[in-house]
Design goal:
The structure is a single chain. Helix content is about 40%, strand content about 20%. The chain is of the alpha/beta class. It has a six-stranded mixed sheet, sandwiched between helices. It has a six-stranded mixed sheet with strand order 14-17-18-12-19-20, sandwiched between helices. A three-stranded antiparallel sheet has the order 2-1-4, covered by helices on one side. α3 packs across α17, α7 runs antiparallel to α8 and α17 runs antiparallel to α19. About 5% of the residues have low confidence.
Length: about 600
């Protein structure tokens, strides 16, 4: 018998500004659930999660939470302004009895010291601080809205591992396909105000969704044919009578109402690039270029050649210097040594990741037209701005909307719409996938596939890199960069490891960090926070493994099991061997830490 849900939403409805956003949503989260919520930008995913967290009151419906159940919610834009340090912010989420060592462990694992001033954090640092605050209490349910936004690859891969080990039920919203596929076991699809659920992870969702749309289209065609048949009968089927059949006329009206009320899928974005004349064969050539800021090498003795039609991906940890490298390759800054040159007849289009070029007070129309009327030049042809906006899923009502009220995904779509209106033969895209829904990502990929020019792409989206680029330039640390053929997965195979976090030199840490001699003295007196957390939690993990080993051994003690169910016998044997190996490693680790603790205490 299935365990009762910890959290349940039933028949949820919510209207914003007269337009129904959610019409009939259901959500049930059981202990240990691994669910993802998917849907287009603006479909109401974040709003539904806020309703689940108890932060938004629906117009209709019921929210049930099992008594004593704890929930932690990660918002897309965390507010740290009321706190003096990152650690203060993270510990503010702890309840009495929660483990303060875990808070410190998470802060350090996410590449922070805890002493940072929240007012000076970058977007990625604020997101990491918010993740630490959300994960620290070890709640029963975790609601995470776009947890990978603004994170670099090392942190994304660490977060995947951390979330795969926790016991809490997990509900995710993310545009990162690989992240969703690795963590989800069920999928809730929010489409046209209604939720539909499949008890499979995201990897099975897209094929299921496409089949659903095909069936829906077949049903729509049947409805159209039925309406046509009824109209034909009313016109020609009773020519000998002057009175119409009232019942059949009523049926026709009902069918027409059904067609009117049918909410079809929102139209797809139409992304096309306006290509300039072909560039020369050589697009970018760098010979032995280097760039240093202070004592820190960003690029060291790099030689690379980019030719027409190449698709180059650039990956590295935050702070590795990806944007600086792009600026060197595109001639925006000069190298300290070496030579970087651009080819002939280049028309470059750059899409930045900061969205700094969008004025919050400007309207959507003004962003595209520069405030000059209602027309935009696309490929040398004038188009009305409303029609062009529709290609990017904006409604006519949004044409006069200020940028400040757009969602992150809508702002990104607007930037892409503006950029793609310009002719180019070199696209430089810096984190273009942030905040885009999965369907728009597909369309962006298709557009890039058809683009005959040259592409330089900076991205943390592993799946998108695999789909789009032909080679990957990876930061190896200390200013060294290496190019690998293929996408991100091909790079992993060749390199044998993923992107590693950049070690932060002591001079780059906050001034309040202890000096080196004092820190060294402290480390001799006690274990680090991570080791203290391990020492505290390992005994419970060892007990869990012993219980699991006993249960598996009990299964294998059945003398008839192999003859009756060889597959189950093999599976239990493999699980027992794995548990025994993990148990031995855990005991060894606990013994090592305990001996270290005793030696430091003496």
């Amino acid at each position: 018998m299935a365990a009762p849900p910890l959290l349940a939403l039933k028949d949820i409805a919510l209207t914003f500004g007269g337009t129904p956003l959610i019409e009939s949503a259901e959500l049930a989260i059981s202990p240990g659930e691994r669910a993802c919520i998917v849907g287009r930008n603006g479909s109401g995913k974040s709003t539904l999660m806020k309703i689940a967290a108890g932060l938004v009151e629906p117009d209709r419906g019921e929210r049930f939470l099992q008594p004593g159940t704890t929930i932690r919610y990660l918002a897309q834009e965390p507010d740290l302004s009321a706190f003096d340090s990152v650690l203060d912010f993270v510990e503010s989420g702890l309840a009495p009895g929660d483990d303060h060592y875990r808070a410190r462990y998470l802060v350090e694992s996410l590449g922070l010291t805890g002493e940072e001033d929240p007012k000076r954090l970058s977007g990625g640092e604020a997101r990491r601080a918010a993740l630490a605050q959300t994960l620290a209490p070890e709640p029963d349910i975790l609601l995470l809205d776009e947890p990978t936004n603004h994170l670099d690859l090392p942190v994304i891969e660490w977060l995947e591992g951390e979330l795969s080990r926790i016991r809490a039920a997990l509900v995710l919203i993310s545009h990162d396909r690989r992240f969703l596929s690795g963590l989800s076991r069920s999928t809730i699809w929010l489409d046209r105000g209604v939720t539909r659920r499949i008890d499979q992870g995201f990897s099975a969702f897209e094929a299921w969704r496409d089949n659903f749309f095909e069936e829906e289209e077949r049903d729509r065609h049947k409805l159209e044919r039925k309406i046509a048949d009824e109209e034909h009968w009313l016109r020609y089927g009773v020519t000998a009578r002057r009175k119409r059949n009232v019942r059949r006329l009523g049926n026709l009206h009902a069918l027409r109402k059904e067609r009117r009320d049918d909410r079809r899928p929102v139209g797809t974005a139409t992304m096309t690039t306006v290509e300039a004349e072909a560039s020369g064969t050589l697009v970018v050539e760098a010979k032995g270029i280097s760039k240093t800021y202070g004592e820190r090498a960003i690029v060291r003795d790099l030689s690379i050649r980019v030719t027409r039609g190449d698709r180059l991906g650039i990956v590295g940890a935050n702070g590795a210097g990806k944007t600086t490298l792009v600026n060197l390759l595109t001639g925006k800054i000069a190298p300290d040594s070496g030579v970087a040159r651009l080819g002939t007849n280049l028309s470059m289009m750059l899409l930045d990741q900061a969205r700094a070029t969008l004025e919050p007070t400007m309207t959507v129309t003004d962003v595209l037209t520069g405030g000059r009327g209602d027309s935009i030049m696309v490929g040398g042809h004038s188009r009305h701005v409303i029609g062009y906006l529709k290609d990017f899923l904006f409604t006519p009502e949004q044409a006069r909307t200020p940028v400040s009220v757009l969602s992150g995904g809508e702002r990104n779509r607007l930037l892409i719409a503006r950029a793609l209106a310009q002719p180019s033969n070199l696209l430089v895209l810096d984190e273009p996938t942030n905040d885009l829904d999965l369907e728009t990502l597909d369309l962006l990929q298709e557009m890039l596939d058809e683009y005959s020019g040259t592409l330089i792409l900076v991205s943390h989206d592993r799946d998108f890199l695999d789909r789009v680029v032909g080679s990957v330039l990876v930061s190896e640390g200390e200013g060294r960069w290496t190019e690998y053929a293929g996408g991100y997965s091909d790079m992993l195979t060749q390199r044998g490891k993923g992107v590693e976090a950049r070690a932060v030199p002591a001079r780059e840490r906050v001034a309040t960090e202890p000096s080196a001699p004092r820190a060294a003295e402290s480390s001799r007196k006690k274990l680090g926070f991570k080791e203290q957390h391990e020492l505290k939690t390992l005994p419970a993990r060892i007990d869990e493994l012993e219980t699991a080993m006993g249960r598996l051994q009990g299964v294998l003690d059945d003398p008839d099991l192999y003859a009756r169910d060889p597959a189950r016998f093999e599976k239990a044997s493999a699980m027992l061997a794995a548990a025994q190996a993990e148990h031995a490693a855990a005991e060894d680790r606990w013994l090592t830490l305990e001996m270290l603790r005793e030696s430091q205490a003496s």
